[in-house]
Amino acid sequence: MWGHHHERQADRAHRAEERHERKEERLHDRAVDAALHGNLFKAAKLENKAHNQHHKAEMAHHREMAHENGAHHGHFGHHDHHGHHHHHSPSPPIHHHHHHTHTPPPNTGFIPPPANYPTGSVAPPPAATGYPANPYGPPPPQQYPGPGAYPNPYGNPPPYPR
CA 30, CA 23: separation in Å to the nearest integer? Predict the structure, then answer.
């Protein structure tokens, strides 16, 4: 009884996996087409949808594997002792197409020092900003009003017990 249930669910999960893979590939192709036409916002949106379909295909694959295991090991992993077990030879590996778009890391302007540069031992030279020094000197530290500067509109809380 439970073997048939697991086989049916495994078949459903397998079909869902294939469907999500087809959708992923179609969305990825549309994203490439949009990018080639200069519509980068649409391309990014479609690529995100393709990624979601890839995730759904992976989840369906995990469901399929779980139900295949359930079909071979009985309900909740217990061996059913009525009838003999059908052990199938392992199926050939399914080739999944993984499409990834690689974007270069953001240009932060940071260039790592050469390997022979002694980092941390000497202060680096001041950065040239292109602006003249502030003739008034550094700004004063921020002064925040002390406690009690603003009245509490809800009244004062009761004192804490000691």
Answer: 10
